[in-house]
């Protein structure tokens, strides 16, 4: 009788513990259209808008209801041809004007089809241009932050053939990516400390050279990591910047994996988009919306 009487309480306790464990929030990626964006229009929801659709009313409506909207930025590679008018603004109004990575010969490095890697040397004209572009986003206040695609201590795409790069070239690339996020962090601290910076790439390239980049971003995205990967779990658990809005995003292979990653220490947002046209628009949120408990007062330096 006593055990039977305890069953409802035990069930409630188990449900409460599971609810606590699954503390990450939903992330939606809407690179092509705004289908299902409204499902993320709640406080603690997050949406990444695409390079050509950021002015769609659905994103403004989502922000008005408390969601965070980040804008996709591809600073490390420029398209070989014009994509759209909005995207062209980032690429100096003409992609052919963008300075390219000069090694081993200018314009030789490619990390993604139909693009070329940009001049990411520290203090390059291109880096300064990207900083000016994002600074204007900070001042305009139409998005909550930026999602820096393929940016971290090293490129991971197979086409980049990173392992073949001479060490000096590797270090120059890493130093440049750190320089970019350092400059962006400096700007936001002066203009809008609430502006979010997430890099789609880890700052651990297998040595300590890139780790200083972690302090300048609010977090990273882990894109379709293997469930249970200790390396990815380690990256997810890092502290990152000190501005009080830590964001670590995981794109999983479907809803079940998204719910599993939601329980991994350090993960704040999960997405279940995968497969053909995986990033065209969000799927239904894979987890409930939860309070964000990672915020703390800024200790700006």
UniProtKB/TrEMBL annotation:
Q: Is DNA repair set as a keyword in this record? A: no
Q: Where are the stretches annotated Disordered? A: 277-301
Composition-biased stretches, type Basic and acidic residues, lie in 291-301
Which keywords appear in this protein's UniProt record, sorted alphabetically? Signal
Reply yes or no: does the keyword ATP-binding apply.
no
SUPFAM superfamilies the UniProt entry points to: (Trans)glycosidases (SSF51445)
Highest taxon above the source species: Bacteria
InterPro entries named among the record's database cross-references: Aldolase_TIM (IPR013785), GH (IPR017853)
Q: What does UniProt give as the signal peptide span?
A: 1-20
- Its protein name is Glycoside-hydrolase family GH114 TIM-barrel domain-containing protein
What is the organism field in this record? Answer: Steroidobacter agaridevorans
